[in-house]
């Protein structure tokens, strides 16, 4: 791999070493090593979880051969010294590097995610890290309970409450708990009918507000992910029925998660439940309505990673952490999404999300 571990989760998983600039990782013959710049080599030798850390500058000097050296010449000489004639690289491996290595006679094969198969199975320590990030979400969520309703809008401390103001306070709370959040969704009314709309403007009473909060721990680098739908005030009867249906579907999905379960079958069972309650999925007036996204995705060092509970099948395995987050979206009624993270067990799953599921908050 050639990547920065600060932005590439596979590199961080392999090395447990954080660096902002790309460096080189090789595992061959059961041993792992890094080729590091002088800037990072001492820190890497003390922190990286690899068998050896070697000096890039030393290889660069050997590669010059009386003239300027190119980066890929250094990489090639490094591979030559290690006896590497063919290698497996992740799907994210830069094309320019791949072309350069192949031109020099190195055979490359590409492995799709998960690049490290063992990454999908979470250890107790990894699950604890995910739960710690989730606890930060729980502590930041009770923001609307103290809001008051004036002329159809929400007010807090004399000012109108907006998606932006709630998102800002949420992010500050999460930072205080050692987490960083981006693109947090606080979407009200029709905005929430677009599942990835972050939400903008004043929050209104008696309308659904979808919170989707997925921070990363600054310490462990692991994510948490949770969605809740709430109404400050009184929900309409049609929205209450929509909420109850989504909650029923989510609980059904959680009850089906276990070792050996097919993600596609879980997804299709939830879709069939929604259909049986009269909630159809399809385009109306050029806009998708109903349940038109996947039921769940893996969570770990990436916010979206294998496995999947969706149209594309994935057989769940003991030890995976996956979300269960069905939703229903109808502009004339509103939108509801409810999301928990669960840890797959042999005969079921453990719910890692304990935050309450209540539609109306007073």
Topology:
Elements lengths: L1 E2 L5 H7 L7 E6 L2 E6 L4 H7 L4 E4 H9 L6 H11 L4 E5 L4 H9 L3 E5 L12 H17 L7 E3 L2 E4 L2 E2 L2 H14 L2 E2 L4 E4 L19 E6 L2 E2 L8 E7 L4 H20 L6 H14 L5 E3 L2 E3 L6 E3 L6 E5 L11 E4 L2 E4 L3 E4 L2 E5 L4 E3 L8 E2 L1
Parallel strand pairs: 3-4, 5-6, 14-24
Antiparallel strand pairs: 1-2, 2-3, 7-8, 8-9, 10-13, 11-12, 12-14, 15-16, 17-18, 19-22, 20-21, 22-23
Helix pairs in contact: 3-4, 6-7, 8-9
Structural summary, described in words:
The protein is 30% helix and 26% strand. By secondary structure, the chain is α+β, with helices and mostly antiparallel strands. The chain folds into two domains: 2-115, Creatinase/prolidase N-terminal domain (Creatine Amidinohydrolase, Chain A, domain 1, 3-Layer(aba) Sandwich); 119-361, Alpha-Beta Complex (Creatine Amidinohydrolase). It has a four-stranded mixed beta sheet. The termini are far apart.
Describe the biggest sheet? 4 strands, mixed
Beta-strand proportion: 25-35%
Calculate the terminal CA-CA distance, rounded to whole Å. 52 Å
CATH architecture call of the largest domain: Alpha-Beta Complex
**Spatial arrangement of strands, main beta sheet:** 1-2-3-4
Give the radius of gyration: 24 Å
By secondary-structure content and strand pairing, the structural class works out as alpha+beta
* Low-confidence residue ranges: none
Mean pLDDT: 96
Helical proportion, percent range: 25-40%
> Quick one: CATH class of the largest domain?
Alpha Beta
- As for the CATH topology of the largest domain, it is Creatine Amidinohydrolase
Write down how many β-strands occur, each being a DSSP E stretch of 2 or more residues: 24
Shape, per Cα inertia axes: elongated
Number of self-contained structural domains: 2
For CATH, the homologous superfamily of the largest domain is named as Creatinase/methionine aminopeptidase superfamily
> Helical segment tally?
9
